[in-house]
Amino acid sequence: MRRTDGPTERRTDHPTDRRTVILSAAKDLLGFTAILLFVGCQTTSTRPGFGPLPGSATAEVELFQGRATQILAEALRADSIPVARVVEIDGVIESDWFAVPGYQVVQSRALGPGTVRVRAWVDIGKPGYSVYTIETVYRVYADPSRQERELEQPVAETHPARVKVAKLLERLVERYGEPVVKPDTGAKAPAVDTTFSIDD
């Protein structure tokens, strides 16, 4: 009779054990993949790391984000604003720095309200709608030690480029937005004088 000096070695290659190991590994892999996808979505956004400046023009249109972004970019270009970047999936539009008047791209250092940039954020609104927020900015002065955004200020409300953007939004709202219902103030319309006279 054959003797066994040590403890009997347990076999671990049973089919059920192998399936358990494979399923566990698959779950771990799926979880890791989901984490990578989430992180990737967070880190690959093309949106600026800042929001629009206070007082930016806003409007809401009955369009999904991607389509709303495309239509706004086309409208800006048609209105002579030199759009440089459009990312429909993120709802981002940005122009080059351009001169006003003239609306020509400026290659040199952009300083003062005569050279501006337009940025637009297109956010998801209520179901089926998107919200436009558009800023028109200029660079106050040059300072290499500071971030570019810190040197930007909104142009005046009467600035030609800002007025152009406001009118553009009005047209888009007329076509794609909800009709504006004026509130009833309770005031009665003045009576109409239906009398007339004929001079001799």
> How would you state the average pLDDT, rounded?
81
Instruction: Tell me the radius of gyration.
Output: 31 Å
Would you report the number of β strands? Answer: 7
CATH-level-2 architecture of the domain at 57-155: 2-Layer Sandwich
Our estimate of the beta-strand percent is: 15-25%
Note poorly predicted spans: 32-42, 187-198
**Remind me, CATH topology of the domain at 57-155?**
TATA-Binding Protein
SSE string, helix = H, strand = E? HEHEEEEEEH
Helix percentage: 25-40%
- Termini distance? 148 Å
Q: Largest sheet, described in full?
A: 7 strands, antiparallel
The assigned structural class equals alpha+beta
CATH class of the domain at 57-155: Alpha Beta
The coarse silhouette is globular
H/I helix tally: 3
Secondary-structure blueprint of this entry?
Elements: H1 15-43, E1 57-61, H2 65-78, E2 83-87, E3 92-95, E4 98-99, E5 115-124, E6 130-139, E7 152-154, H3 160-176
Antiparallel strand pairs: 1-6, 2-3, 3-5, 4-5, 5-6, 6-7
